[in-house]
Write a structure and sequence with these properties.
alpha/beta; TIM Barrel; globular; two-stranded antiparallel sheet; 11 strands; 440 residues; 12% strand
Length: 440
């Protein structure tokens, strides 16, 4: 019997004003991270395209230099609960911080979302890069990079323990005996750690997926280690095939130390697609977007990503040699490496960050874009991709209507869902409850 052909996974990374800083200005673009009708249509399009998941990033600050998609937006868990009512198959994932949150609250919120969506919840675990976030949470100081990851590791372990508070079948609701639940299937957590003390149990029954899907997006060494230990999916920013392959191989090589197989962690680089029915049409679209980018806003975005104010440097000069930021360590390194490898001027780097923010940009006809995705997928650089349209809804419409059918024809992507949960889409098994495992 032949093995079924490996298929890629697809997510849509939704920044409702578009990923390009000027994407919202295109004539056929709509905008608004608080435009529920638009966001519901985006989710419906991704579900029509049989995407694995719909993903919302989040941040805990804003300001006059914020990206248009990030300056004002819905709290993501509230929004995903609404989308759970308008979708039926696509996974629903959101960023929630482990530095500015409590494990009990977060575990309860994702358990609730998993129940409301009937098993489609995913949590993008982030440690919050920006130090200014501390000022919004009565904190005197923002933890250092490595400490943030130590906090995250303990936080995720607590959440998983809380999701196992109740065994499956605990709520018997037996009218004849009056027993609403079986107390033998209820378990305390009794966690006492360096950063958290959590007794449990969780006041939510076990999620349909057992544990909602865990996503991790940090590419620093502590970030990769956290992913290897705890994550089901990794979102990464790689713009070069060889670098992507090295990241993929290096991350997968960490899995055996945690008793995990390569197929239990999916690597999904971000992809910024600029699609045209001809190469020239795609190029013209990109040039138009770049011409509309606000130079000051674009420069502020690069300064934020590098962790240093670069406004005083000449745009036609080289990218300055700067120490890596403790805030966005992996992203600042990625941009510095890109500038050095491509010998970019600062102005050229600013133009790149204004569009794909250091992610992989693919430009051209649907066939050419499908070819490039296939090359990375077959070449061992990715298990799938997180699609980052430059604008909505048309940027996603073009990908679903023009690129997805080519991937399907090549046998690289599903033609229909074969399961109902996000774990089903990702080909991941439901984790056993630790208490059943310990006494079973």
């Amino acid at each position: 019997m032949t093995e079924p052909k490996r298929q890629m996974h697809l997510g849509v990374f939704v920044q409702a004003a578009g990923h390009h800083v000027a994407g919202w200005r295109l004539p056929d673009a709509e905008a608004g991270s608080e435009n529920l009708d638009l966001i519901k249509r985006i989710a419906a399009t991704a579900e029509r395209g049989k995407f694995d998941l719909f993903f919302l990033a989040d941040g805990l600050t804003t300001g006059k230099d914020a990206h248009p998609s990030m300056v004002a937006r819905f709290e993501p868990m509230t929004l995903l609960a609404a989308l759970a009512m308008s979708t039926s198959r696509i996974g629903l994932a959101a960023t929630v911080s482990t530095t500015y949150g409590e494990p009990f609250h977060v575990a309860r919120a994702f358990s609730s979302l998993d129940h409301l969506s009937q098993g489609r919840a995913g949590w993008n675990v982030v440690t919050t890069s920006y130090a200014r976030s501390a000022a919004n949470f009565s904190r005197g100081a923002h933890p250092e990079h490595d400490e943030r990851y130590a906090i995250a590791r303990e936080f995720v372990e607590i959440a998983k323990g809380l999701w196992d508070s109740w065994e499956d079948g605990a709520f018997v609701m037996d009218k004849s005996t009056g027993a609403y639940f079986d107390p033998s299937k209820l378990h305390l957590l009794e966690h006492e750690g360096k950063y958290f003390s959590v007794k449990g149990p969780l006041n939510s029954s076990r999620p349909p997926q057992g544990h909602p899907i865990i996503i991790q997006a940090g590419s620093s060494d502590p970030g990769q280690e956290l992913a290897a230990e705890t994550a089901d999916v990794v979102f990464t920013a790689q713009a070069d095939l060889e670098e992507a392959k090295a990241f993929y191989d290096g991350l997968k090589a960490r899995l055996p130390r945690y008793g995990r197989r390569s197929d239990q962690l999916h690597v999904m680089p971000g992809v910024f697609p600029v699609i045209g029915r001809t190469e020239q049409e795609a190029l013209d679209k990109l040039k138009l977007l770049q011409s509309w980018a606000d130079p000051a806003a674009s420069l502020a975005l690069v300064s934020e990503r590098l962790g240093h104010d670069i406004s005083g440097y000449p745009m036609d000069g080289p990218v300055p040699e700067l120490p890596l930021s403790d805030q966005l360590r992996s992203r600042s390194k990625l941009l510095a490496d890109l500038a050095r490898r491509e010998n970019l001027t600062l102005g050229e780097l600013v133009a790149i960050v204004a569009s794909a923010r250091g992610h992989w940009m693919v430009r051209g006809t649907p066939e050419r874009i499908a070819d490039q995705l296939e090359a990375w997928f077959v070449g061992g650089a990715a298990d799938g991709f997180n699609i980052m349209p430059p604008y909505f809804p048309g940027g996603l419409d073009d990908f679903v209507d023009l690129v997805v059918p080519i991937l399907q024809e090549r046998g690289l992507f599903r033609t229909d869902y074969t399961g109902s949960t996000l774990r089903d889409h990702l080909g991941l098994t439901r984790p056993e409850n630790r208490h059943v495992r310990s006494h079973g």
